[in-house]
Each structure stands twice: as structure tokens, then as C-alpha cells.
Design a protein that fits this description.
The protein is an alpha+beta fold and 601 residues long. It folds into five domains: 6-92, Alpha-Beta Complex (DNA Primase, Chain A), CATH 3.90.580; 105-246, DNA primase, catalytic core, N-terminal domain (DNA primase DNAg catalytic core, N-terminal domain, Alpha-Beta Complex); 250-368, Dna Topoisomerase Vi A Subunit, Chain: A, domain 2 (3-Layer(aba) Sandwich); 376-431, no CATH class; 456-589, DNAb Helicase, Chain A. It contains 27 helices and 17 strands. The strands form four sheets. It has a six-stranded mixed beta sheet, with helices on both faces. Strands 1-2-3-4-5 form a five-stranded antiparallel beta sheet, sandwiched between helices. A hairpin with a 4-residue loop joins strand 3 and strand 4 (57-60). Helix 1 (6-15) packs across helix 24. The longest helix is centred in the first third of the chain and has 29 residues, at 105-133. Residues 437-449 and 591-601 have low confidence and may be disordered.
Length: 601
């Protein structure tokens, strides 16, 4: 699979000052030679988040997160490493050209993915041009005008139109040089006979307003088409099928534009349709998402949990909207999200309400949204004659099944108290109706890994090898591979010495840190913020000898043990005896170890 070359990563790091990058997200205050702020990755009242401009690194002494400028963008924007490099490269105007390997399966899959992404991007542009310029798209333009969607919004969201034709998209794609198999794989066309792969194909989207569906970095991966007529036999919305790019249950519409708003608000406004989302976003309510369909899936809820702790459901007031809200509940609760409901008046949706009330009133409606269980309990109780014991017990069992979906123990107890109070029964009595919760761990739940702290002498040598060129050069001239191999807990020192990092070059340090797991990168970022002794090279020599001495003793013990083995050849005996003499001589040469006192500068 294609990889971003190291020289490009280093170039991108050098072109993006970490103080400027982090300062573009939230204000930093100077604190001596460093900068400081409240940590964006955990709640705190006293700033423990430090940014070091000299070494272009950050570290929070409260939660332990830290690393390079790439790590910050990855954690803050919730994207992977390649995406963070591309984002910072775009910020600096640096082109990113990936290196390709040989003709492996990974390379073929990577190339196929790139081709599909290119086809989707060009198809989105073709649909968009149709909407803007073609006579046959006049009804779509009129529809958008009636819905209050301006040309600026059309361009911003790259809305398009699929002509009412059986093969217009197919012919266009073939004319662009795409193969039939690729076009079919994209989902833009479909087989006339699903049982016969060789049968004719025709356009999937015909006579529909087209919404490009993007992944979280803004690449078009699918489409959703809305019908313009009131044809009751045709689906109102038609989505792309599952493809190598698109998994319906793992994508949230608009996330590439709204995730910053989600992170800032800590709360997601969830609506049903694409137009609802676009209207809210353009009105300034940017913390909004829409599932691909009506109800949330487990995958979508898991993605949303990366950005927020709370959701407000804004589904339509009709029966379908209420059912979608209930179906969304379990996956949202499974991911410990607080769920509230903003009730829409009959016949209204978020799009119409924002246009009628304005963004400020709609925002107040969101702020006043009721807890889902308050809304749900009242609705269910109001629809039941609770004076009838049989009906009351039936309702209690029904409510207990839903309460059982709540996995967070505090939230669960709170809901039990609410239901019991509304039904007029004891909490203990109601609790007996709950099915036993399944205590299976979500396999997709992230684990926070903490790198074990190396022993003091190894940690000090790591710090010196990272921070001081003379100390590093000394260590590189020693028999460090052998000593490290025989010294438990020295894996990080080996990583540092194996790398080509340059202690005086922050971009080189960023490149090195980007090669580490997050926990180890945090460890390195802490070392980069510590002061080093003024006599670093001398300290490195003393502590290295202290590390090397026990390694020599272990080698001597191993050689002496081997000499006692039976059936050694005369040559093996001579070689081992020579090794023992040599190792004893090296140990005799050691003066009593007394490491130079490390006085902080």
C-alpha cells in the first residue's frame, strides 16, 4: 500500500510551527520558554498542557497525552496519521505524493480504492454541473429555490442532479475511461439481472437531487438521491449500495464539515435528512449529524462517541420519526451517550422550523430538549390506563425491557427511579422486572494504553540520546546493541538509537515520534520537556558504564555456565575460556561506579 515518504513527513513538520497550529484551535499563554493552556483532552481547572516551541512538541502532565504536531492534530481532529500529514501539508502548501510498492494484493487494493475515489469525485462534479447548468435540471433548481437553498449553499455542499435517463451516467463514466466493472463496483449503476453478472447495467440514480456522501476527511465515497416528485411508489431517498468505500452503518452524513462543531459543543444534534442538516449547519448550528437512513447503528453511535457525550434527537413528530428515535436508543446507550429529545411540532422538521423560527429559537429548543426517558416515560404512561393493574404490569415489563438497555450504572439507577416514581411502585420492586444485564465487553471500545516507565538510568540515557548530539554520538560508538539486548526494559533506548533522529532538529524529532505508538510518544514528549544536565556527555558516559557493567556480568555468568556443559569440543572450550578471561578483564577495568551528579541547567 502507498506510504508517505519520511522526507515529506519531515518537511511537513518543519513547515508547521506547533505553537501556531495549536494556537489556531485555542489560545495559548506564554509560560517562560514554553506555552501553556487548559488541556483539551481532559477536564481540568489548572493548566497542565504545555507546548515546547524549541522541540516542537506538546505534553499534558495531567492526563499524559503528548507528542508531535501530527499527534495533536490526530487526537484533536479524530483522524489517523496519514490524514494528519495531509491536512498539515495542505496548510503549508506542500504536495503529498505517496510511494507505491510492488504488485502485491495491498497495492492492487490501494490502486482500486484510488480509482473508485477518483470516479466518485468526478461523478460528484458531473452531477453538480448538471444541476448548475443543464436545462433538464430546471425542476431541481426550482425545488431548491422553494426550499430556500441558495446557490452558495449548493456549491458549498456540491449538490447535484441525476438526469431522468437509463444510461446517462453510465455513458459519461465510460467516456471518462472507466471500465464497466469499476463503474458497477461504485454503485452508480446496477445490473438488470442480479443473478447474471454479464447482464446489462443501468443508472441507479435517475431524476434525483444528488447529495455527495463524504468520509470524515471529505472524500466522496457514495451518494444519496432525493426524488423531486410525490411518487408514492418510489423511495423518497435512495442511497448508494454497500461498496469497498461505503458502509452505510459506519458513515454519518456531513461529519467532514461538522466534527469541529461537535467537539466544541460536546453535543450532537441528530436529524433525519440531508436538507435538515444542511439548513441547520448553514444557520450556524454546526454540531449536527444525520445517519444514513433513519435510526442509528452501533457503528455510527461508536463514531459519534469519539466527538460528543450527548445527543439530541430531532426526528419528525410522525410515527416513523418516533419509531426511528426508539430504534436509535439502544446503540446510543450502548456507547454511554446521554440521549435527549427535541420534539418537533406536527408537520414540521428541523429545516422548516429553522426557516420559520430562526436559528436562535431553534437553538433554545435544543437547549430545552428533554431527557429521552422523561419524554418516553410520559408518552407511554399517558397512553396506558395505569389504574388497571393488568395494563400497569404490562407497561412496567415493557418499560423494564428498555431500561435494561442502559449500561452505565449511574444512568441506569436514575432511570429506574424515574420509572418507578411515575408508575407509583418501589424502585426495588421495579428492578426485579429488569432482565439481567449482559456483561460482555464491547470489543470495539478503545483501550487507553500506558507505556511502562523505564528504570531511572535507562530513562536518563533515553533523554540524553534524544536531547544532546554529543551524548548520542558517544552512545552510538558503544556496543549498545549487545547491552540493550541483555538489559530488560531498554526497548525504548534501542528505538531511539536505531533511529536517524537529529537531536537539534525539531522536524527530525517529530518524524521519530510519529513512528511510535501513542503511549510511547507521550513518554518521549515528557522527556523533551525536562531539563537536561549541562554536562550531558559526561553524564551519558557514567550512566552507560553503570548499565554496561551488569550486562557484562550476565555475559560472564552465561559463559561460565556453558563451560560446565558436557561433551564440549576442545575448540569450544578454548573459545569459552578466552571469552571468560576477556569479560573478567573488562569488569576488572571498571572503577567503582559513581555517576556524575546531574545538575539541572
Amino acid at each position: 500500500m502507498g506510504t508517505i515518504p519520511n522526507h515529506t513527513i519531515e518537511q511537513v513538520a518543519a513547515a508547521n510551527d506547533i505553537v501556531e497550529v495549536i494556537g489556531s484551535y485555542f489560545p495559548l499563554k506564554r509560560a517562560g520558554t514554553n506555552f501553556r493552556a487548559l488541556c483539551p483532552f481532559h477536564q481540568e481547572k489548572t493548566p497542565s498542557f504545555h507546548v515546547n516551541p524549541a522541540r516542537q512538541s506538546f505534553h499534558c502532565f495531567g492526563c499524559g497525552v503528548g507528542g508531535s504536531v501530527f499527534r495533536f492534530v490526530m487526537d484533536y481532529e479524530h483522524i489517523d496519521f496519514p490524514a494528519s500529514v495531509r491536512r498539515l501539508a495542505a496548510r503549508a502548501g506542500i504536495p503529498v505524493i505517496e510511494e507505491q510498492g510492488g504488485s502485491t494484493d495491498d497495492d492492487r487494493q490501494h490502486e482500486a480504492r484510488r480509482t473508485l475515489l477518483k470516479l466518485h469525485a468526478e461523478a460528484a462534479e458531473w452531477f453538480h454541473e448538471n444541476l448548475l447548468k443543464r436545462e433538464f435540471a430546471a425542476p431541481a433548481r426550482e425545488y431548491l429555490k422553494q426550499r430556500g437553498i441558495s446557490s452558495a449553499v449548493v456549491k458549498s455542499w456540491q449538490l447535484g442532479f441525476a438526469p431522468e435517463s437509463w444510461d446517462a451516467c453510465l455513458k459519461w463514466a465510460l467516456d471518462q475511461g472507466y471500465k464497466r466493472g469499476t463503474i458497477l463496483q461504485s454503485g452508480l449503476v446496477k445490473l438488470r439481472d442480479e443473478e447474471r453478472p454479464e447482464s446489462e447495467v443501468y443508472d441507479r440514480f435517475r431524476g434525483r437531487l444528488m447529495f455527495p456522501i463524504c468520509n470524515d476527511v471529505g472524500e466522496v465515497i457514495a451518494f444519496s438521491g432525493r426524488i423531486l416528485t410525490s411518487d408514492k411508489e418510489a423511495a423518497k431517498y435512495l442511497n448508494s449500495p454497500e461498496t469497498p468505500l461505503f458502509r452505510k452503518g459506519s458513515i454519518l452524513f456531513g461529519l467532514h464539515k461538522t466534527k469541529r462543531g461537535l467537539i466544541d459543543a460536546g453535543c450532537a444534534i441528530v436529524c433525519e435528512g440531508q436538507l435538515d442538516l444542511i439548513t441547520l449547519f448553514e444557520a450556524g448550528l454546526t454540531n449536527v449529524v444525520a445517519p444514513q437512513g433513519t435510526a442509528f447503528t452501533e457503528g455510527q453511535a461508536r463514531i459519534l462517541k469519539r466527538y460528543v457525550n450527548e445527543v439530541v434527537l430531532c426526528f419528525d413528530a410522525d410515527a416513523a420519526g418516533q419509531k426511528a428515535a426508539e430504534r436509535s436508543l439502544e446503540p446510543l446507550l450502548e456507547n454511554n451517550l446521554v440521549v435527549r429529545v427535541a420534539e418537533m411540532p406536527p408537520g414540521e422538521d428541523p429545516d422548516s422550523l429553522v426557516r420559520k423560527e430562526g436559528a436562535e429559537k431553534f437553538g433554545a429548543r435544543i437547549a430545552a430538549a428533554r431527557d429521552f426517558f422523561d419524554f418516553w416515560i410520559e408518552r407511554e404512561v399517558a397512553a396506558t390506563d395505569v389504574t388497571n393493574l393488568s395494563k400497569k404490569m404490562q407497561l412496567a415489563r415493557q418499560l423494564a425491557e428498555t431500561v435494561a438497555r442502559v449500561h452505565d450504572p449511574l444512568m441506569r439507577n436514575e432511570v429506574i427511579s424515574k420509572v418507578a416514581a411515575r408508575l407509583g411502585v418501589g424502585t426495588a420492586d421495579f428492578s426485579t422486572l429488569l432482565p439481567k444485564p449482559q456483561r460482555t465487553r464491547n470489543p470495539n471500545a478503545p483501550l487507553r494504553m500506558v507505556a511502562p516507565a523505564p528504570r531511572h538510568e535507562i530513562a536518563l540515557l533515553c533523554l540524553l540520546a534524544l536531547r544532546d548530539a554529543e551524548a548520542r554520538n558517544f552512545l552510538l560508538t558503544q556496543d549498545w546493541p549487545e547491552v540493550v539486548k541483555e538489559t530488560p526494559g531498554s526497548e525504548m533506548l534501542a528505538r531511539i538509537l536505531e533511529s536517524d533522529l537529529r537531536p537539534d532538529d525539531p522536524a527530525s524529532l517529530n518524524l521519530f515520534m510519529s513512528s511510535l505508538p501513542a503511549a510511547e510518544e507521550s513518554l518521549v514528549s515528557a522527556w523533551l520537556l525536562q531539563k537536561k544536565p549541562p554536562n550531558a556527555a559526561a553524564v551519558a558516559r557514567d550512566w552507560w558504564e553503570g548499565l554496561r557493567q551488569p550486562a557484562l556480568r550476565r555475559r560472564l555468568q552465561a559463559a561460565e555456565s556453558r563451560l560446565k556443559l558436557p561433551r564440549l569440543s576442545p575448540g569450544e572450550v578454548v573459545a569459552l575460556q578466552k571469552q571468560v578471561v576477556d569479560l573478567r578483564g573488562q569488569l576488572d577495568d571498571f572503577s567503582r561506579f559513581s555517576p556524575t551528579r546531574a545538575v539541572e541547567s
